[in-house]
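This section describes the prediction task in plain terms. A model, or a person checking by hand, is given the sequence of a single protein chain and must write out its three-dimensional structure as a string of tokens. No templates, partner chains or ligands are provided. The sample shown here is typical of the held-out split.
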Amino acid sequence: MRKSLILSAAALGLILSSCGSDKVGSVDYIPVKLESSGNWVFMNADGKTLSEEFTKKPSNVINGYFTVMNDNYETSVYKAGDKPELVNTLENLQEAGIFSEGLIPVKRKDAKVYDFADKSGETKWSLGEGMTPDDFFVNGLIVVSNKDNKKGMYNTSGEQVIPFAYDFLSDLYDGVIVARKDNNYVLINKSNEEVAKLSDMNPLTDYQFGFAMAQKGESVGFVDKEGTFTKWSKGDGIKDFNKKYVIYISGSNYGIANLEGEELARAGFDQLSFVTEDTFLAKKGEKWMVVDKEGETINEIDAKHARVVVSPNGSLESDFSIIAGSNGDYALYNKKGEMKDKKKGHFAEY
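The expected answer:
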């Protein structure tokens, strides 16, 4: 299974990742470590914590559910709340994915196949032996690998809609799937019909905002639904993008441009990530700050470390914005870079 969702923006070009408006669900709470007890509790974006404490770090609460692994590396699934409720039959599992579209893929203890269970823990349908699903559904489909590591897709009813004919399949976004077969990339739709050939291209992201980021030869750029490649000429490459802006790379620094390649903020930042569609978390020297699209400072953040909790370009949505602080002393910040109530949002580790 795909082990985790990427919650903060990673450099594109290393892995094929998703970025866009189609969301799997929401991150409701994140686990944080208490200074007093050393145990873990759940905190929401307003700094409110649930009362239950955990000795082992649980997963994020996504769509109201979370998982915890025990000392035997077995996973159990819970419904979040002040008193978490174990989901019936979803205890001591070999593996568990994420609840999306009402289903969670699980491999039960001693089982040889993956089940898809609903929120009552009841198995709705199962895969065949040797098949492995991704962690979650996107727009009604989930990628599944067979025993030969060929990829296909199933819908939420357990019907296979894309055959095991591909070496790679992205998730379905904007009605389009990026697929690789015999070392050739194509765009297909959910009916397995070819939309466009991506001749001599290596896609680096899912298809969203009307294009996918791709590499062609030594060049990086964007490919549209017709398979037309447009070279990106600003700087040395692209770190991240959304439907309006690109974080571009220049040497070891980052800047901001629009999709046409017009520079908005020169590449003078040591680190740069999207906070919202129009604002960015930036680091210059030892200083962290939130900046606008021109690179102008909105607020400085007095911290040694900072990160965006949930990338706005990823598969999840959330009211969380920024975590920042120093070792053993972290707090939540809002989208403008303002610290939230420290009494509520203060913790030792995350």
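For orientation: The radius of gyration is 21 Å.
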